[in-house]
Prior knowledge:
InterPro entries: Acnase/IPM_dHydase_lsu_aba_1/3, Acoase/IPM_deHydtase_lsu_aba, Aconitase_4Fe-4S_BS, Aconitase_4Fe-4S_dom, HAcnase/IPMdehydase_lsu_prok, Homoacnase/IPMdehydase_lsu, IPM_dehydratase_rel_enz, IPMI_cat. Heterodimer of LeuC and LeuD. Its EC number is 4.2.1.33. The protein is an alpha/beta fold. It folds into two domains: 4-261, Aconitase, domain 3 (2-Layer Sandwich), CATH 3.30.499; 269-407, Aconitase, domain 3. Helix content is 32%, strand content 19%. Strand 12 and strand 13 (279-281) form a beta hairpin. Helix 2 crosses helix 5. The protein is globular, with a radius of gyration of 20 Å. The chain starts with a helix and ends in a 7-residue tail after the last helix. The mean pLDDT is 94.
Amino acid sequence: MPTMSEKILAKASGKDKVEAGDIIIANIDIAMTHDLTGPLSVQSFEKIGAEKVWDASKIVIPFDHQVPADSIDSANNHILMREFVKKQGIEHFYDVNAGVCHQILPEKGHVVPGDVIVGADSHTCTHGALGAFATGIGSTDMAMVFAEGNLWFKVPETNRFNITGELKDNVYAKDVILHIIGKMGADGSTYKACEFAGETISDMTVSDRMVLCNMAIEMGGKTGLVEPDEKTIAYVEKRSNKPYEVFKTDLDSSSLNIIDIDVGDLEPQIACPHNVDNVRPISEVDTEIDQVFLGSCTNGRLSDLRDAAKILKGNKVAKGTRMLVIPASKEVYSKALDEGLLKIFVDAGALVSAPCCGPCLGGHTGIIGPGEISLSTSNRNFKGRQGSPDGKVYLSSAAVAAASAIEGRIVAPE
C-alpha cells in the first residue's frame, strides 16, 4: 500500500500508482522563487528561449532575502524580478515588507493538502506541514518549471517519525526537531520523505508542525510531511478557496520505515557549531553570546514572539549582548504590534526589524563579525552562515533565545 508521498505524486503524474524509486514527471501546483534565487531562474528561462510562463496564476514570487535592497546588486535583482513579474503577468507577487517566503505561502492560501509545491529554496519542505508534497529545487530547474509546469522526480522512500510523550514546560517543536536531527545525523534521511506523526504531533499547532517540516532538509530529507487533520483543515479553509485532497500513509507500505521517538523527558536542545546535527541538551551547553536572533522561517511566527515576550517582559537584554527580532511576515508583525509584543521587545533593549530573512543567510541585516557568537532561532549554523566564517552560530527555540538574551549566555528558561 502507498505512502502519503506516493499517493500525492501518483495524482500529480496522472498515474494510478507509483512506488518508491520510480522516476516520474509530476505536474506542479505552485512554483515559488524569491529575490535571491529568482534572477538566475529568470535568466535561465530566457536562455532556453521560453517566452511565456506555463501558468502565471501558479507562480508565487516574494521578496524576502535582501529587503529592502542592501546593495546595488540586490537592487538590480529586484528590478529584474519586478520586470519579469510585469512582463509575465505574475498574479502573486509580494514586494518588500511582505515577509519570509515560507510564511507567506501558507498565510496567503497558496498551500493546500495534496498539492505538489516546488520552491527555489531548500526550506520549501516547510509546506508539507499542511499535507502537501513540497520540496526545494535549483534555480535552473525552476526555469523549466516556469516554461513547462512540470518536473521529474524520483519517488522517495519514507521515514515516519512516530513521536510520543507530553512535552515539558519550555520544550517546544524546535527542541523536538533538533533532537531528531541529532539522533539521525545530517544524512540520516537523505532523499526520503520525513513524516511526523504520533500523539505529540496531534497536540501541536500548525505553526509547530511547520517548524518540524522546515528542518527536514537538515537531515537530508526530500520533504517533510504531516498528515492533515482537523487543525490543518481549519487553517486551510480560513485562508484558501483552492480545492484540495487529503492523503494519508498506509502503514503497511513496503517503502515505509517507522522510527519511534519518546520526547516526554526531553529538555531544551541546542545545535552547536558548525553543524545542525551537533545537538546537545542545554544542560551541557554554557557559553557567552554576542547576539541573539529571533526570527526566520523556522521560528519567526506569532507563537514564537509570544513565547519570547513572556520571558522578556519586565527584563532587559544583557549588557554586551544585542538582540534582533524579525517577525516572519507583515501579518505576524501587525498582530505582534496589536498585542504589544513589539513594545516588550523594544523596552527590553532589542532591535525590531521589518519582516525579512535577516541574518539567517549571512547576507543582510545583523550579520556577525569575526569571533562573535550568535544564538539563533533559525535553521542552519554552518560556518559563515550568519556572517563571518570566524564566528559561531548556535540554534535554539524562541524561549531559550529570550532567556539567553537576558543572561548574556545560553541558558534554559526557568
